[in-house]
Design a protein that fits this description.
The termini are far apart. The longest helix is centred in the first third of the chain and has 12 residues. Strand 2 and strand 3 form a beta hairpin. This protein is α/β, with parallel strands linked by helices. Strands 1, 2, 3, 4, 5, 6, 7 and 8 form an eight-stranded mixed beta sheet that branches. The chain is built from five helices and eight strands; from the N terminus they run αβαββαβαβββαβ.
Length: about 160
C-alpha cells in the first residue's frame, strides 16, 4: 500500500480496508484521472472499464443520487428519475462536495459524507475488472464488478 497517499485517497483506502474485501488498493497516478478518458489512458485500460461516478440531485427533495456508470455510457437522466421516482438534475460541484465529501473527478463509490442512493450501470458487469476513482482526481483502485455491488449494496440497472 502506498503510505504517501493524499488525505482523501488515504480515507478511501481505509474505507476499502474496512469493507472486508481484500486486495482493494488505492494507487495515485502522476496524470489527472478526472474524466473516464483520462483515467483509461493513465491506467492503460478501456474507457468502458472506468466506473465513473456521477452525482445527481433530486429536484423536489434535494437529496443526492450517485450513478456509477461505464465510462463510455451517457446516463439517461429521465431514466434515472423514473427509476428513483423523482426527477433529477446533474449536481453542481458544491453539492457534490457537500454530500460526498469529495471533488468531482475523485468521487469514489464508497466513503461518502452521508448515505447516498446508488445505482450501478449493468454494463459494468460485463468486465472481469473495472477501475473507480479513489478520492482525488489522481487516485483510482481496481476491483471486480461483483466487488462494486458488494461495496455499494444498491441497485444494478440500465442507465442508458
Amino acid at each position: 500500500m502506498n503510505r504517501d497517499l493524499q488525505k482523501s485517497a488515504q480515507y478511501v483506502q481505509e474505507t476499502l480496508n474496512a469493507s472486508g474485501i481484500p486486495s482493494l488498493t488505492v494507487v495515485e497516478l502522476p496524470g489527472i484521472t478526472r474524466t473516464a478518458v483520462e483515467a483509461a489512458a493513465a491506467i492503460g485500460t478501456t474507457v468502458a472499464q472506468i466506473a465513473k461516478a456521477l452525482v445527481f440531485k433530486k429536484k423536489i427533495t434535494k437529496q443526492p443520487v450517485l450513478v456509477i456508470a461505464s465510462g463510455i455510457n451517457r446516463v439517461d437522466i429521465a431514466r434515472i428519475g423514473g427509476l428513483i421516482g423523482e426527477e433529477v438534475i446533474l449536481a453542481d460541484p458544491e453539492f457534490v462536495r457537500k454530500h460526498t465529501g469529495f471533488v468531482i473527478g475523485g468521487v469514489p463509490p464508497v466513503g461518502h459524507a452521508e448515505p447516498i442512493t446508488t445505482l450501478i450501470d449493468e454494463d459494468l458487469l460485463e468486465f472481469e475488472e473495472i477501475w473507480a476513482a479513489a478520492g482525488t482526481p489522481h487516485a483510482v483502485f481496481r476491483l471486480s464488478p461483483q466487488d462494486l455491488v458488494r461495496l455499494c449494496g444498491d441497485t444494478v440497472v440500465r442507465v442508458t
